[in-house]
């Protein structure tokens, strides 16, 4: 089992990821900009969770999962980059730009993933994942009918995050290089559109006819 920090873990996505990781037996710490808020959320959740300010939560972990809005990405990554050490950093950030969140608006760098990599630097092991999974479904006991695509240029780090997913009730799949994260970031806006247009409760994506893919939980 791994020691994992969920940075920005007080929102629905962070809580959902933290809850499912803890249920799978991992040692999970909730991080927030304000340590008191992290403590309040951690104590309110069922199960045992550590808690602390983001920079403290990120220290000494095997995996650090960042679950913050796009507008907070740069500040959050800057805060933790000197704390993560050898941990695998997993960024879930999608570049949604209100009020037009149903329109794909990728940043000039190509995607939020490449912006994040530039902030963290080449010494940090880095992948992205969990872009297209409904936060409110993750933060529930419901079955989540959605694959988790994991992107990164560090193949072993990518594999490690894929292997986290079955214990969370999800199927993880390698999506290839970090630059490919642009596709998952873009499709999030389309999923928001689908939810509104087709009255869906957390639309997701599922890949079919993958002969060697992991079994769907």
Molecular structure report:
The protein has a 6-stranded parallel sheet with strand order 3-2-1-4-5-6, with helices on both faces. It has helices spanning 12-23, 35-44, 54-57, 70-80, 112-120, 135-138, 155-164, 181-197, and strands at residues 3-7, 27-32, 50-53, 63-66, 88-91, 125-128, 147-151, 171-176. The radius of gyration is 16 Å and the shape is globular. Helix 4 (70-80) packs parallel to helix 5. With 217 residues, the chain is α/β, with parallel strands linked by helices. The mean pLDDT is 96. The protein has a single domain (3-197), classed as Rossmann fold. It contains 8 helices and 8 strands.
CATH topology: Rossmann fold
CATH architecture group name: 3-Layer(aba) Sandwich
Which structural class do you get from the secondary structure elements? alpha/beta
Low-confidence parts, pLDDT < 50 over ≥5 residues? none
**Rg, alpha carbons:** 16 Å
CATH superfamily: NAD(P)-binding Rossmann-like Domain
Task: Identify the strand order in the major beta sheet.
Answer: 3-2-1-4-5-6
Based on DSSP secondary structure assignment, what is the total number of beta strands?
8
Number of helices: 8
| Tally of distinct domains | 1
- Give the SSE string: EHEHEHEHEHEHEHEH
- Approximate shape: globular
Q: Regarding CATH, which class?
A: Alpha Beta
Portion of residues in beta strands equals 15-25%
Question: Mean pLDDT, nearest integer?
Answer: 96
- Give the helix proportion (percent range): 25-40%
Sheet of most strands? 6 strands, parallel
Distance between the termini: 19 Å
């Amino acid at each position: 089992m791994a020691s994992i920090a969920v940075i920005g873990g007080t929102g629905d996505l962070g809580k959902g990821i933290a809850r499912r990781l803890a249920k799978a037996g991992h040692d999970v710490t909730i991080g927030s900009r304000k340590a008191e808020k992290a403590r309040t959320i951690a104590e309110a959740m069922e199960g045992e969770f550590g808690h602390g300010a983001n920079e403290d939560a990120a220290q000494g972990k095997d995996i650090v999962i960042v679950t913050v809005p796009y507008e907070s990405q740069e500040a959050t990554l800057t805060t933790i980059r000197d704390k993560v050490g050898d941990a695998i950093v997993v960024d879930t950030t999608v570049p949604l730009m209100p009020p037009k969140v149903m329109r794909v608006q990728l940043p000039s760098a190509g995607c939020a993933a490449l912006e994040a990599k530039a902030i963290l630097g080449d010494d940090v092991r880095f992948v992205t994942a969990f872009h297209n999974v409904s936060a409110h479904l993750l933060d529930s006991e419901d079955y989540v009918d959605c694959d988790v695509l994991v992107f990164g240029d560090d193949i072993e780090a990518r594999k490690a995050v894929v292997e986290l997913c079955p214990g969370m009730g999800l199927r993880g799949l390698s999506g290839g290089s970090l630059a490919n994260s642009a596709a998952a970031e873009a499709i999030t806006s389309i999923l928001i559109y689908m939810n509104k247009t087709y009255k869906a409760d957390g639309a997701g994506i599922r890949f079919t006819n993958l002969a060697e893919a992991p079994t769907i939980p």
